[in-house]
Amino acid sequence: MNSYSKSAIPSYVTLPEGGGFATIYEFIVFRFPRIPEPVWRERIELNKVRFDDGKLIGFVTPYQAHRRICYFREVINETKIPFEEEVIFENDDFLVADKPHFLPVHPAGEYVNETLITRLRAKYGYKELGSAHRIDRSTAGLVLCVKNCSKRGLYQQMFKEGLVKKIYLAAGTLPAETDQTHWHIKARMEPRDHFHMQIVPDGPVNSESIINLVDRRDGIGLFHLQPVTGKKHQLRVHLCAIGSAIIDDPLYSEYSDIDGDDYQRPMQLLAHRLEFTDPVTGKPMEFTSRRSLRSFRVL
User: How many C-beta atoms lie closer than 10 Å to residue 172's C-beta?
Assistant: First the structure.
């Protein structure tokens, strides 16, 4: 028998200008092509789709640009992630969580309750808790979470403006140029398809990373990575650009034979360190993950 998981966190969509949609239902079906139309039909029949002011949306509700609709994502037979997050710091304004591999930060895809933010809200009762940034589900490590909506923008702006020093560690294959240990990558990245990013030769630079090879062990390198910008999959793509690949990266490593989640072989990428000046108190803050990579012991 199927079991349904409903997200405790609402999802919102603002209706854009134009598009030629007569009804909101027509827009929703177009906007979410991977969700079968009968699913949206059932949600509307059960009064599960509303405007953000609580008014119900029906099949013939006219399209109204700039209004915001609200719904709660649902999935069938949600998979339990068998790893726990750890809160390593907390004050009145934010907390820093050390996320395990495989756990998404926010509801996405087949996960609605098995997410970092949903777990922390349920565990600590912080109803407005939200992240100031994101890391991939397959990446472990530090995530800064803000307790109140009124201050979340201050912390999000730090990341947008590059005021946070982020250090990642990755275990990857060694590049062919074995004598080189430092790379400064500046490149333009664009989507290759729905799941992958790629470096393209034309257009202005929109991604930048500093990469250092700091250790070698049994043919595997330990890389110290500092992203200057924050494009999707940036570090994974930039490592490929220098002739490396993260061990057990299911998307970008030609050496990976992983099909689906293999809990014994997490991708070897860790959000290791965060450094910033607290925009509320003005105090310098530094945090280091307590997690390690399988191939290297992180001290």
Answer: 27
Return d(Cα 91, Cα 71) in angstroms, integer: 31
| Structural tokens at position 84 | 């726990």
pLDDT at residue 298 in the model? 47
* Of 174, 116, 172, the residue nearest 141 (C-alpha): 116
Question: Which secondary-structure segment (H or E) carries 211?
Answer: strand 207-217
What's at 189, amino acid-wise? M
CA distance 42 to 76: 14
Domains of the chain: 4-76 (3.10.290.10), 86-163 (3.30.2350.10), 167-269 (3.30.2350.10)
pLDDT tens, position by position, 148-192: 999 999 999 999 999 999 999 999 999 987 789 999 999 999 999
Q: What amino acid occupies position 133?
A: H
**Residue 9's pLDDT band (boundaries 50, 70, 90)?**
confident
Bridge partners (DSSP) of residue 97 are 87, 143
Name the nearest CA neighbour of 183 among 191, 174, 192. Answer: 174
CB count within 10 Å of CB 58 equals: 12
Query: How wide is the angle at C-alpha 171 spanned by C-alphas 169 and 175, nearest 5°?
Result: 115
